[in-house]
Automatic annotation (TrEMBL):
The lineage of its organism: Bacteria, Bacillati, Bacillota, Bacilli, Bacillales. InterPro entries: YlzJ. This is Ribonuclease.
Length: 68
């Protein structure tokens, strides 16, 4: 089976579940995001959209924080 995806192999087939603990999928401003909870906010890990316009939005780039 061939899996064509932009998601890293480590995330598709995780070997250590602690590395990805606390990560979840959320939708913010209509954009699907992979985020990690940090205190009372979410830190954006990855934009999970196929729309190129979502990557141009500077408020939802990886590393930025979004409210809970």
């Amino acid at each position: 089976m061939i899996l064509y995806t932009m998601v890293p192999q480590e995330q598709v087939y995780p070997t250590d579940t602690e590395e990805f603990s606390g990560q979840m999928m959320v939708e913010h401003q209509g954009v699907p995001l992979l985020v990690q909870k940090v205190e009372d906010k979410y830190r954006i890990i990855r934009i999970m959209s196929s729309d190129p316009a979502h990557y141009m939005n500077s408020t939802i780039c990886p590393g930025e924080f979004i409210p809970n």
